[in-house]
Amino acid sequence: QVQLVESGGGLVQAGGSLRLSCTASGRTFGSYTMAWFRQVPGKERELVAAINRSSGRTYYVDSVKGRFTISRDNAKNTGSLQMNSLKPEDTAAYYCAASQNILSSEQNYLPVAYDYWGQGTQVTVSS
User: Is 46:114 a contact under the CB 8 Å cutoff?
Assistant: First the structure.
């Protein structure tokens, strides 16, 4: 079992930055693939970014490439999502997720591939 707690959400103007953090407790965080998803009401949850548990390979949804950066510190059991040049369309609830499996490139993008979820943190970008 692993418990995930997100922090760092809030209200920011377009063009601004936020840094989300995910703190894990329980089993060794380094053995999990970690990801950030987001969801707006009425829409499906979508992957924002994922980072492989061993290679550190990263995956991003096209809309955030070049603006967001996912990272992890296994020694501290934490993961982060640095979000720059934020746009109103980035407004959503953001969720940290972890999978105990080695995921294929395609599986990284699927919510069902993840075993553990945080409670979510709201990010609101004003225009």
Answer: no
Closest CA to 53 of 78, 32, 73, 75: 32
**Contact 58/51 with Cβ under 8 angstroms?**
yes
Residue 95 pairs in a beta bridge with 37
Tell me the pLDDT tens digit for each residue of 76-95.
999 999 999 999 999 999 99
CB neighbourhood size of 107 (10 A)? 16
- Hunting for tokens 């959400």 — which residue is that? 9
Taking Cα atoms as reference points, which of 72, 53, 70, 52 lies closest to residue 61?
70
Closest among 8, 48, 43, 15 to 126, alpha carbons compared: 15
- pLDDT, tens digit (0-9, with 9 covering 90-100), for 39-79: 999 999 999 999 998 778 999 999 999 999 999 998 899 99
29 by DSSP, 3-state: which?
A: helix
